[in-house]
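User: For documentation purposes, I need each entry recorded in a consistent format: the amino acid sequence on its own, followed directly by the corresponding C-alpha cells. There are two entries in this batch. Please keep commentary to a minimum and don't merge the entries.

Assistant: Recorded as requested. Entry 1:
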Amino acid sequence: MKNFSTWLLVMFIVMFWVFRMIVALTSELGIDFGGIVPLDMTTEVILLFTVLLSLIFIIKRNIIGGLIYLLTYGLYFGKSLLDNVMSITSSGLTVGNSLNAFVALIGILLPVIVLIDLLLDRNRKLNPVDKKTDWYYKDDKYDREMDDRADKNNYRTL
C-alpha cells in the first residue's frame, strides 16, 4: 500500500464499515438513525464480518478481496438501491428513502472504485520500482566497488 489513493480508499472502507455497524446497532436497539435502516439484520451482520475479511485482502493488494467486497456489497446494496428508487418513484421523495438510496449508492460505488484501484495497481505490485532505493540496491557496479574496497581495508586492532 504505497499509494495515497489506496490509503484513502481503505480509510473510506473503514469509515463506511463503522457507519454500517452503527446503523445495525441503532436498528437493533430501536433507535431512529435519521431514517437509515438495514434491509435485513442477519445479512447486515454477515456482511460486516465479510467486509473485515475482504479488507485484509484489500490491504494486502489481493484482487480476491476486491471481488469479494464488490460481490457482497453489490448484491446487498444493489437490491436496496433498486427498492429505494422504486419507492421514491411510486410514493414520492422522503428523507428516509433518499438517505437510504444515497447510502446504497455509496455502498455500490466504493467497491467499484476499490476494484479499479486494485486492477490499476497490479503491475506495480508485481514489479515495484522505488527510485529512492533502486539506485543503491540494483546497482551492480556499486556493489563491486564496495567489495573491492572492503578487501583492501586491513585495519589493526589494539
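Entry 2:
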Amino acid sequence: MKYIDAKRVRIKIGDMWESPMLNVLLSEEDGVVVARCLEFTVSAHGRLENDAIESLAEAIKEYVLTAIENKTIHALYDPARQKYWRAFKEIEKKKSIALLNKSINLSLKNDYFQAMNRTEPELIYV
C-alpha cells in the first residue's frame, strides 16, 4: 500500500444533508486507488482518484442512510486506525510545507520583501 494524497471533503445529498468536513486518505493498493474516510469505517475504490472519491461519497451516503434507518446515528463516528490518521497528517504536513515554500519563493521572486516588511498582517479565518 502506498499513500498518495490526503483531502478534506464534504458530502452533500441534495438540499437534505451536508456532512461536516471529512478527512479522506487516498492510497494505491493492487493497482487501484482506495479512498478511506477517516471518520467512518467506510472506504471505496476506483481506477483514478476522482473515481475513488465519488465511490466513497456514494458509500458514505449509504452508510448514513443505513444508520438513520436502523436508528444508530449515535454510532456513525467510527474513526479509522491511528496508522491512517498518521499517514493523513504526514501528507498534509508535506503539502503545507510545499505551499509555504511556494508562497515565499513567489514573494521573493517578485521582490516584495521591502513592501512586506512595511505592511501590517491581516488575519483571515476559514
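Summary note for entry 2:
The helical segments are 49-69, 82-109, 113-118.
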